[in-house]
Amino acid sequence: MIIEPMLQGAGGMIVWKKEFLAKARELCDRFDILLIADEVLTGFGRTGKMFACEHAAISPDIMCLSKALTAGYLPLGATLATEEIYEAFLSDDRAKTFFHGHSFTAHP
Ligand SMILES: Cc1ncc(COP(=O)(O)O)c(C=O)c1O
After folding, report:
1. What are residue 56's phi and psi, to 5 degrees?
2. SS3 label, residue 42
3. Ligand 1 close to Cβ of residue 4 (< 6 A)
4. Which amino acid residue places its CA nearest to atom 8 of ligand 1?
5. How far is CA 44 from CA 10, 24, 92, in A?
6. Which of 43, 56, 89, 93 qualifies as a cystine partner to 22, CB 3.0-4.6 A?
7. How far apart are CA 10 and CA 4, in angstroms?
8. Which of 72, 93, 66 is nearest to 4 (CA)?
């Protein structure tokens, strides 16, 4: 399940309830589904907490970060993952690489 916690930016800056986020975590746990939090927009204090997930006191399995890492001065993104997920992608085999991109891709 991929979500923008607390604030759905692309959908029109829709703020939704922290209870929804907590329930999403619960459902993912129950059905063994990874919860991916896209905190590209909300990370680093933009919702009043360091990360929007903190409003519901939950941790995602994967967290995507970028914008506020450099405030646009440099193209940079980060993908944070639990140890279990990290281990699953840890290999010398390039085919197993956890490929990712960075933000501000057309940055001069
Ligand atoms: C919530 C969210 N996720 C992802 C992206 C895409 O970011 P990127 O430029 O790192 O691909 C954006 C871009 O504004 C965003 O607001």
Report:
1. -105, 10
2. coil
3. yes
4. 103
5. 18, 22, 33
6. 56
7. 9
8. 66
What is the spatial order of strands in the sheet that 78-81 belongs to? Answer: 2-3, 36-38, 62-65, 78-81
Residue type, 77: G
45 in Cβ contact with 37 (< 8 Å): no
Q: How far apart (Å, rounded) are the C-alpha atoms in residues 63 and 2? A: 10
Q: Which of the listed residues 4, 66, 70 should we mutate to test ligand 1's pocket, taking the one with most ligand atoms within 8 A of CB?
A: 66
| Ranges of H-type helices in the chain | 18-30, 67-70, 83-89
Which residues pair with residue 80 across a beta bridge? Answer: 63
| Bridge partners, 8 (sequence order) | 14
Length of the chain: 108
pLDDT band of 24, cuts 50, 70, 90: very high
Task: Give the rounded distance of the alpha carbon of 59 from its chain centre.
Answer: 10
pLDDT of residue 76: 85
pLDDT in tens, 47-102: 999 999 999 999 999 999 988 888 888 888 899 999 999 998 889 998 887 777 76
